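ESCALATION

Customer reports they have been waiting on this structure for their group meeting. Please prioritize. Original submission:
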Amino acid sequence: MLHIGPLALLIRVLSERERRKALAASSVKVKGVDVIASHKVLCAIIAFPIASFVWTLAFRYELKYLFDITGSLQNILTLIFFVAWPFYSYGTIWEG
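Update from on-call: job pushed to the front of the queue and completed.
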């Protein structure tokens, strides 16, 4: 959950800001829950691929400088990480 926490916090803050803006602009909205839900989906669609890319770069850096793994093995492990990361993140969201 440590890897998703900052991303979830950012999405929550941005969605709350959008909800307040929508409530101020509308006389019909009471809670603005629909605004929060739709904004969270939009933010996640944009932020999650960026976060996955950043985590993959961090993994590649660790392989090279901490574990001294370079060359084709580094490329293969980075590709495996990049492909497996979304499944792992999805699993941690539903588990926690």
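Sent to customer with the following note: The chain has a mean pLDDT of 85.
Escalation resolved.
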